[in-house]
Amino acid sequence: MKMNWKRVLVALSALAAAALLFAFSGFLHVRASTGHWRITDWFLHQVMRSSVRTAALGIQSPPFKPGMLPMAAGHYEVGCAGCHGSPVMPRPAAATRMLPPPPDLKNIAADWTDAQLFEIVRHGVRYTGMPAWPAPEREDEVWAMVAFIRQYSQMDSILYRKLSGFAASQSSQFNAILLACKGCHSSDRLDIDSLIPSLDGQSEAYLRDSLEAFVGGQRPSGIMQAALSLTSPEDRGRLAAYFAASGVTAAPRSQTLEAGRLLAERRDNGRNVPACIACHDTKAANKAYPRLAGQPSAYIENQLRLFKTGSRGGGPYQEIMTKAAASLSNDDILALARYYSSLPRN
Fold first, then answer.
1. Among 36, 156, 196, 258, which one is most buried in terms of CB atoms within 10 A?
2. Which are the contacts of 79, defined by CB distance < 8 A and separation ≥ 6?
3. How far is CA 19 from CA 23, 28, 252, 312, 315, in A?
4. What is the DSSP letter of 64?
């Protein structure tokens, strides 16, 4: 029997026209309250899983470090707990009425590999409330969140409060904003493995430039963009002034490395690496440059790696550091981080 392709095309066109007519008639419900048909729910979940599985092929997870958890936990409290709940607070009733409802992360991490979780956190999921990471180029932040999700099922309220600071607030009042900042950056929460910097005693100019760079996107950070999303320029100015005036506390210590000291004090003309003290931690230094002495070793190491890859960003002088870090080796970065973390705050 010979198929009449003309009739087939006419039939398919008629079906497409009927589907469009039904869609635009208003009889096709988009109500979240009615839920999906089972076949629709199955289809969407299969598409999502297949998409994530394919996109995650070839992604290698880095070694997880303890310093990742406080950074991710602070962001989770600000940006995620309002939908997913936390060990301290259950999911809001409104979140359970979303379609699909945000999952309780205690029950979901085991279903995905690290690479797949990285894909979901970094890019979000269409047709759900799961957003993409605000700064997708900051893969280190996304991996920190993956490490947090991996540990989440084992967290009780005490550990969660300790990691997150549990000081975040959606209020725009300055005292609540300050409390949220101190929940992560308070010096007594930081140690040598921290990926979060100490702000106490930094210059007001550097802090103000950094906060504005986070808000404006010149310094990418999904964590900081979320944390500063409800602040005004006046709030950020007051934050810079507050931390600049804060007393300097005892700093985390590590063994001083001679290699780090030499890199900090002597220019390497062969590799075009300037001496760090040409810009940092001297009385004559530009106030818009950060002080490095006494910062957590892990934080300095991470920032230097971001500068080296060109993904750090920052205030008006960011290009100077991007060029300075370009020729640093992994050993150089580690030596500098350990050296500066060993110095007392000045």
1. 196
2. 226
3. 6, 10, 65, 49, 53
4. P
